[in-house]
Amino acid sequence: MSAPTSTVTAVSPEGPAVEAQPAKRRRLRFVANGKAATGLITLGFFCLIAIIGPWIAPYDPSARSSDLIQPPSSEHWFGTTHLGQDIFSQMLVGTRGVMFVGLLAGLVATALSILIGVSSGFLGGAADEGLSALSNVFLVIPALPLIIIVASTIPGAGDLMVALVIGFTSWAWGARVLRAQTLSLRRRDYVEAARATGESTWRIITAEIMPNLTAIIASSFVGTVIFAIMSEITLAFIGISTISEWNWGTILFWAQSQQALAQGAWWWFVPAGLAIAILGTALSLINFGIDEFVSPRLRSSGHTRLKTKDGHSVRMRVGFTPVLGTKAVPPTPVVRKKVDAA
Fold first, then answer.
1. Where does the record place the ABC transmembrane type-1 domain (predicted)?
2. Sign, Cα dihedral of 214, 220, 222, 228
3. Contacts 24+ apart (CB under 8 A), 236-239
4. How many angstroms separate the CA atoms of 140 and 172, rounded?
């Protein structure tokens, strides 16, 4: 004789009994996040400008004219410099160098952090100790002063050299985080099962470990891109990198050296400053979106929808234990007996 079964339904805070809707996997959940979508759209806009900027620039960014320190107009959208150079053309042309350095440095640093961090955490033993020691050495190396020394020592150091130096000195933090996560994953059941079936070490790393580190790798990449872009602009602003190659830092360098603020030429430095702020905000929004994608507790919605029997949808707060119950049972009447006093 089979055991009796009972149907359990969830009761929402509003009262009606609801049945939990089957969970559906949302493939584009990250893109659907408002912060991530805004950041990706903004970053895509800057990447597009980096590609087509030199082609659509109305003037040669280094060409001089008789319009000296002119405010924005229909002829010069962002005004001109002390030499009559068009600032709008300098912004369009300079976007390529900023994006090139940021993305290349982020790719180099992320690749090194994956190779060293994941290998260190999974292999263990002498390999772990050696790679961890290498990471510790690069952790204490001051990246920006080293970049300044290399850029000032090597004659004609361009964007490629600066990007490589930033990438080769910025991977240690990401490697440490990936190593810690790999140490927590290497003894999981699915990893042990793959090892028991005879899978090779690199097959286990790439197919079992790496998919669980995707969000951390993406967050590390975004953080490195932000650092690389700010380092590139800093080098150009203080006059270390080649000032003949236009980027946003070069525009700020000439604006500061010619005392644009004292002359009231706000149009000389405001566009570059706003572009830096907008790009940094876009990358930060992408990073926030990655954090919310990884941790459901950080998602802005914090709610789930349950479908009632009559077809209505009820919104419930995630994180609270639902009230469980069966069909309503009438309360048992209480029989009270009167006791006569003796």
1. 99-287
2. negative
3. 238/148
4. 9
Q: Which residues on adjacent β-strands are paired with residue 10?
A: 18, 324
Please name which of 197, 218, 198, 200 lies closest in space to residue 122, comparing C-alpha atoms: 200
The CATH number of 34-298 is 1.10.3720.10
232 — pLDDT class (breaks 50, 70, 90): confident
Query: Residues 123-137: pLDDT tens digits?
Result: 878 888 888 888 888
Sign of the C-alpha dihedral computed for residues 107, 216, 130 and 193 taken in this order = negative
Q: Is 118 exposed, middle or buried (0-12, 13-18, 19+ CB in 10 A)?
A: buried
Question: What is the arithmetic mean of pLDDT over 267-285?
Answer: 91
324 beta partners: 10
Structure tokens at 208: 């079992």
Backbone dihedral angles phi then psi of residue 305, each to the nearest 5 degrees: -105, 130
End-to-end CA distance of the chain: 54
- Among 179, 185, 44, smallest CA distance to 120 is for 179
Three-state secondary-structure class, residue 3: coil
Q: Where are the alpha helices (DSSP H) in 6-139?
A: 29-32, 34-56, 87-113, 119-123, 125-139
Q: How far apart are CA 264 and CA 335, in angstroms?
A: 91
This prediction's pTM: 0.73
Give dist(CA 272, CA 88) in Å, integer: 10
Structure tokens at 330: 């009438």
Name the token pair of 243.
């000032």
pLDDT, position 200? 82
Domains of the chain, residue spans: 34-298
Report the DSSP beta bridge partners of residue 317: 303
> How far, in Å, CA of 291 to CA of 310, rounded?
37
| H-assigned helices in 170-313 | 172-185, 189-196, 201-204, 214-237, 248-257, 260-263, 270-294
Confidence band of 309 (pLDDT split at 50, 70, 90): low
What integer is the mean pLDDT of 289-300?
A: 68
Lowest mean pLDDT segment, chosen from 81-90, 211-220, 332-341:
332-341
What's the rounded Cα separation, in Å, for the pair 194 and 215?
Answer: 22
